[in-house]
Specification:
The strands form two sheets. The protein has a four-stranded mixed β-sheet with strand order 2-1-3-4, with helices on both faces. Strands 5-6 form a two-stranded antiparallel sheet. α4 crosses α5 and α7 packs across α8. It folds into two domains: 49 residues, Helix Hairpins (Orthogonal Bundle), CATH 1.10.287; 232 residues, 3-Layer(aba) Sandwich (Pyruvate Kinase, Chain: A, domain 1). It is built from eight helices and six strands, in the order αααβαβαααββββα. The protein is elongated, with a radius of gyration of 29 Å. α4 links the parallel β1 and β2. By secondary structure, the protein is an alpha/beta fold.
Length: 311
């Protein structure tokens, strides 16, 4: 049985650790509320931007859209895209102590790489987050290191100017026909206790359905109604200006979603650690009391034995 001093030292050590986990839980909670506020405010902007783009796009023939940049947004044949590399953008955190958040992303990334390679395609990797970059390095996978700390920049008040660098870089790869599609791999915030891994395709190339351009994954509606907006200049020029903003909005929302999931996962991990510390403290306190009582009993027995021997 451990001595009283050893048990007392363990109790003190666990209490010190519990102070750290409690502080980290409070910090994660504050950051979570901050990022949630940023996300809620941004989603209103994104939804309105999407509705404007959809409304402007309801009845614009494909050949007339984006006349100034045909090489940027002109539809590419699907057979050509299938031969090009896939750019995979996995998003993790820059620090640990967030449960299985980073390990799940690492496993999903490796699994996705194998799935793409099994289809005969090459994979290019652009990690965001130090943890996933470290895992890719361990797996001896080459990656583009230019945007590893992008999540930190966003959390510290970054704007579209930070995200636009990523989107511009991806667009250049696409225009140079180095990649055929772009996939974000990240945690989607579902609830405080649930973050699910999600794959989202970046829509760099508008889809053509029934000779009309569609900027999102929704199918084109038959007999579209005229646009409800009065535009100046023409809808084509305005749409060409809004479409890059929509790409930035998509990348920005993915990063915010991943940040929200990260802080929720860290807060739950620290809460679990705090609860485990409380359970362990109860067990050690009970053991300490039992050991102390046993020591007192042994001392009394020794005293009574000595007294009986004297008499």
């Amino acid at each position: 049985m451990a001595s009283l001093k050893e048990i007392k030292n363990r109790i003190a050590s666990i209490r010190n650790t519990q102070k750290i986990t409690s502080a980290m839980r409070m910090v994660a909670s504050a950051k979570l509320h901050h990022v949630q506020g940023m996300t809620e405010a941004f989603l209103r902007y994104k939804d309105n931007l999407q509705s404007i783009v959809d409304d402007l796009n309801v009845d614009i023939p494909c050949p007339e859209v984006f006349p100034q940049e045909p090489s940027t947004l002109a539809p590419q044949p699907s057979t050509l895209n299938s031969l090009l590399s896939t750019l995979l953008i996995p998003i993790s955190s820059n620090s640990g102590l967030c449960g299985a958040f980073n390990s799940n992303i690492a496993k999903a990334t490796i699994q996705r790489i194998h799935e793409i390679e099994a289809q005969g395609q090459q994979v290019r990797l652009l990690p965001i987050g130090k943890k996933i970059a470290h895992e890719l390095k361990k797996a001896q996978r080459d990656y583009i290191p230019d945007f590893i700390t992008l999540s930190d920049q966003i959390e510290k008040g970054g704007t579209f100017s930070d995200v636009s660098d990523l989107v511009t870089f991806v667009q250049q790869l696409y225009q140079n026909k180095e990649i055929g599609e772009v996939l974000f791999l990240y945690h989607h915030f579902k609830s405080m206790g649930t973050q699910v891994i999600q794959v989202e395709k970046m829509n760099l190339n508008p889809n053509v359905n029934d000779n009309h351009l569609t900027l999102n994954s929704k199918p084109s509606t038959p007999n579209p109604l005229p646009s409800t907006f009065l535009t100046e200049p023409s809808p084509q020029e305005l749409l060409a200006s809004l479409y890059p903003r929509l790409l930035n909005a998509q990348a920005y929302s993915v990063l915010l979603d991943s940040l929200t999931s990260e802080h929720a996962a860290r807060m739950m991990a620290m809460q679990t650690a705090d609860d485990n510390a409380n359970d362990l403290l109860k067990e050690l306190t009970l053991l300490y009391n039992k050991t102390r009582q046993q020591a007192i009993t042994n001392e009394l027995i020794d005293i009574m034995s000595g007294k009986g021997a004297v008499t």
